[in-house]
Amino acid sequence: MARDDGYVLYVPFGGQTPDPDSFLALVLDGWERQQRAKDFSAATIRTRRNVVLSLVDFSGRYPWEWSLGDADDYFSHARAVRNLSHGTVRSYQGAVKLFCDYACSPHYDWCEQSAKLFGRVFAQVVTELNRVTHSQPTEARPGKRPFSQRELQELFDLADLEVERILDSGRKGALSAWRDAIAFKSAYSWGLRSEEFRRLQVSDFSRNGKAPFLGNHGVVLVRWGKPHKGSAKKVRSVLTVWEWSAEMVADWIKNGLPRYGYPVTDLFPTSSGKIVGESHLNGRLHDFLDELGYPPGLDLHSFRRSYATHLTTGEGFDLTFVQLQLGHDHAYTTSLYTLPSPDYQRLALERVHDRTIKAALALPSERKHP
Prior knowledge:
Elements: H1 20-37, H2 42-59, H3 68-80, H4 86-104, H5 110-118, H6 149-169, H7 174-189, H8 194-198, E1 205-206, E2 219-225, E3 234-239, H9 243-256, H10 278-292, H11 302-314, H12 319-326, H13 331-335, H14 342-361
Antiparallel strand pairs: 1-2, 2-3
């Protein structure tokens, strides 16, 4: 009879020929329990399990039979033939390494069982010899960029104009166009990721006692923040920076949302009662960008890039404040968003020129002397 004391799980094969598939399933189930105990999400656990099974299928060997060569061939195929990204291959290696660490641990006794059943033991097949390392400080695609201030203003103006164009033409869709315009402005106003601003609800807004002029929209509670790998969604509060942002969302809640009927809890609903989809917003944004003729490199995440860039390099906010607003654990991550924009460089140059010209035009009596 099998005994499961939380540490050692013995396999009841008796006198029958050991079944490697059944043994592998037991090991994977034990690994799943260990990961759940460490509070990893079900999706993360499932993904890692699939990676292990993928390596089994690719190599034609069970994990206790794996060698470094099997792992090398698998990851090389993923990169060179399947054309998976640098980061994806590294995540695959991380999953295999975690599995091997678990299976090799003496606390669970899997090596002893595999030795008795199959005459082989588990070994670590992801080491410093074949582990993919970070090849650059960030894996963000270099073509992606923030909006300039001028581009943002023109985009928001066009999004507002689209509502009027639909109304004037007599076509349907004016309400959804209005909603999309507010969604774009909200993404920028609070520096939010797509998942974060699409899932906002009316109840997520509250007052900021230090900024009563912002009314009931001085703080927004972000409940769908990007989690640590395998963990639950991160929650944070983001302060409203610009008064126009509070006015914009207040007008939408008062005059726009009621048109969807009652009760409406989501800030950006659809007529079917769901929340607006990312693919729909991407399509709407790309239509606007094509009409405006902007250079490539802009997407939904560019609103977040623009927020960080404009706050730090355009308006002089402290990097730590921006880091907290964005929900980054490390200032280094925030700094990747805050490279000076062309607008910032142009304004900085204009300020220097203005000071130079004023100094040159000043009368001798007005000039300062040491």
